[in-house]
Design brief:
12 strands, globular, D-Maltodextrin-Binding Protein, domain 2, single chain, 2 domains, alpha/beta, 334 residues
Amino acid sequence: MRLFSVLLGLAVVVVSLPASAQDPLVESARKEGRFMWYTSMNIPDSQPLLDAFTKKYPFIKAQVWRGSSEKVLNKIQTETRAGKFLFDVVAVNAFEAGFIKANHLAQRYTPPSAKEYLKGFVDPDAYWVDIYDNYYVLGYNTKLVRKAEAPQSWEDLLDAKWKGKFAMDPEDHAWYLALQEAWGKDKAERYGRALAGQGIQWRKGHTLIAQLLTAGEFPLGLVYAHRMEELKQKGAPVDWVTTTDPIPVEVHPILIAAKAENVNTAKLFVEFITSREGQALIKEFGRIPAHPELPLGWSVNPKQLKLHGVGVISPERASQVIRDWRHVFSPMGF
């Protein structure tokens, strides 16, 4: 009887412990106590995610290094060529993620939440999971362009009245790939050359383009839909066109370093950011979460848009798209 009472008491103690204390992954992360995240996500978005993670797991010290996807990849290449894996987790655009995977710079890991994601948002080879998406859309300043006069298609940008009045990023490769896939390579090239002849205003960074669009530096720009929605809610004089076909959607995968020093903490962070809890935070920051069960709350239903997904592709395919892009746009000012 006494033995039964002792065992019962132990069972009560175990049951009363928080779930995290019984999780082997959490305990392994506790022993590591830190990790490094390389990301192209803006600091105003990435830092609060880390803060929420470390609030949940206060024994972890998290660091973030932020740069464009291209700069993040260059940093990883420089470090790994020197035999150093200084990052534990990396989140970049699809093109760069494809290079990281193909060059064996990431390891396989599938978080529990991955089973809730749609096909195309989880790597079938288990190297990455999508954390948020970027919709490439045509934005406009409502003080400079009335809604009825705004271009309704990509082809409408070729009208002479928009010459010199449209801005885009010099690395919008995913947008161009979507046109190639949706229209065919020849039509996309003809269109690209015609658009380049319109005197494109080249600006680096979609956040910058959105800010300059709001300020009225130019009336039109290739921007992210979530940024336009965020600015609209703050009262900015901007809107975006919902009728372009296609609307390219680029995934933003997260991967764990092949030789992550803090691999258990890295796995725990990937579990957090892909969970409904982490995805709800991403939505709260105004981005488009990859989790399919989180409604966006926009004035337009994404299901009504002509979306075209651009996923992780091989480095060879990515290099070809970049060459195609430069072949079309470089002679015309970029």
